[in-house]
Specification:
By secondary structure, this protein is an alpha/beta fold. It contains 6 helices and 7 strands, in the order βαβαβαβαβαββα. The protein has a 7-stranded mixed sheet with strand order 3-2-1-4-5-6-7, with helices on one face. α1 links the parallel β1 and β2. α5 packs across α6. It starts with a strand and ends with a helix. Bound molecules: 5-O-phosphono-beta-D-ribofuranosylamine.
């Protein structure tokens, strides 16, 4: 069965990274089990997807996150936009990962999510973007980088076309990163 992984999705999240993680665990690419998918709202589309995948789901109210993750060995954030309280980071012993759709430390921080990230990358004239899986700290988008995958930014890219290219990388990077931290112990 391996370590138990809880995946925390956003209120409006599609859940595509959640799905990539669940499939990677089920295929044996990642030696762990998808234990629980959590959201702060029952209407999160990712919860419906998780139920379709046969994963247990749970919603939690403000200040109930610490309680909701009791029993999880790892917590993976996938589209969750709020800061994780220090008490939860401590409780998880630092075993919390997040995925960000750019090459951190650039294009991270408060307000840098979704299309804002890709707009900023295109506006800055960067030739390259990608995604970053990192450990979670009490600050936005900080913490040790585990995996980064890169792709070109094309001259005619819109935030949507760049987001799609980066998302395809995210679905590879997150399982790779989880497998890596698990094998590192
Ligand atoms: C991804 O782009 C991820 O990098 C960011 O939020 C988005 C979630 O997408 N943190 P999805 O719900 O996993 O499809």
């Amino acid at each position: 069965m391996g370590p138990k992984v809880a995946i925390l999705v956003g209120k409006y999240g599609r859940g595509s990274n959640m799905e990539a993680l669940v499939r990677a665990m089920r295929s044996g690419q990642v030696q762990a089990s998808p234990w629980l998918v959590l959201a702060g709202s029952d209407s999160a589309p990712a919860l419906t997807l998780a139920r379709e995948l046969g994963v247990t789901t749970r919603t939690f109210g403000p200040s109930e996150l610490a309680q909701a993750v009791v029993g999880a060995d790892w917590l993976c954030l996938a589209g969750y936009l709020s800061l994780i309280p220090a008490v939860v980071i401590e409780q998880m012993g630092g075993r919390i990962l997040n995925i960000h759709p750019a090459l951190l430390p650039k294009f991270g921080g408060k307000g840098m999510y979704g299309s804002h990230v890709h707009e900023a990358v295109i506006r800055s004239g960067e030739r390259e973007s990608g995604c970053t899986v990192h450990r979670v700290t009490a600050q936005y988008d900080e913490g040790e980088i585990i995996v980064q995958l890169r792709c070109p930014v094309q001259q005619n890219d819109t935030p949507e076309t760049l987001a799609a290219r980066v998302l395809a990388l995210e679905h590879k990077a997150y399982p790779m990163a989880l497998a890596q931290v698990l094998s590192d112990g």
